[in-house]
C-alpha cells in the first residue's frame, strides 16, 4: 500500500528540493546543474525527486515561479496603499527593490559572478519574462493613477510598465557589469562615477517617458554606491 504523504510534509520536502536547486543555479549555473547534483545536495533518490518534479524543466519552472512570488510580496503593499500618490508609489517601488538588494549584498555579489554567464542564459530570460508579466500591470496601474492626478502625461500609458521594466533591466545589467569590473580595476572612482551617472540617466529617461516633473525620482549618490564598493572589497578579501 502506497504511503500517504500529508500536504504539509509534501510542501516542506518540495520546498527543500527547490531551495537546493536554486542555490545550485546561483552558484554553478543552470546549464551546469544536473538532477544528480540536486539529489546529492538533498540526499534523496531519483525516484523521490520525481515524486515532486517531473523533470529538470519542471524544476526550472518552479524556481522561476518561486523567485516571482518572493519578489512580489514586498511590492504589493506599496501598490495598494490608498494614501500614496503615483510618484510616491513609483519611488516606493524603486526604494523597495534597492532595500532588498542592499540587505543581501554579499549573496547578490556572489550571484552576479554566475548570473551573467552563458550557463544561466535560459534562467535570466525566463526570470525577465516572469518579472515583466508580474510587474508591468502593477506599474501600469500606477501610471493610470498618475494621469488622473495630472502628475504624468504620456501617449501610450498601457505600454508604460513594459517600457519602464525594460529600462530598469538595462540599468541593472549596466550596474552589474560596472560592479564586477571593480574586482579588476585599481582606480575605483571612474567606475563609481559611471554607476552614479548611469542611474541618473535612466531615472531621467523614466521621468521623460511619464511626463513627470524633473527630479521627481531619486538619483543614486556616492554614499549609496560606496556601500556596494565596500561589499565588493570585502568579498575579494574576506576576513
From TrEMBL:
Keyword DNA-binding: yes
Pfam families for this protein: TetR_N (PF00440)
InterPro entries in UniProt: Homeodomain-like_sf, HTH_TetR
Keywords from the UniProt entry: DNA-binding, Transcription, Transcription regulation
Domain HTH tetR-type: 11-71
SUPFAM superfamilies registered for this protein in UniProt: Homeodomain-like
GO terms assigned for molecular function: DNA binding
Annotated region of DNA binding: 34-53
Record's protein name: HTH tetR-type domain-containing protein
Organism: Dictyobacter aurantiacus
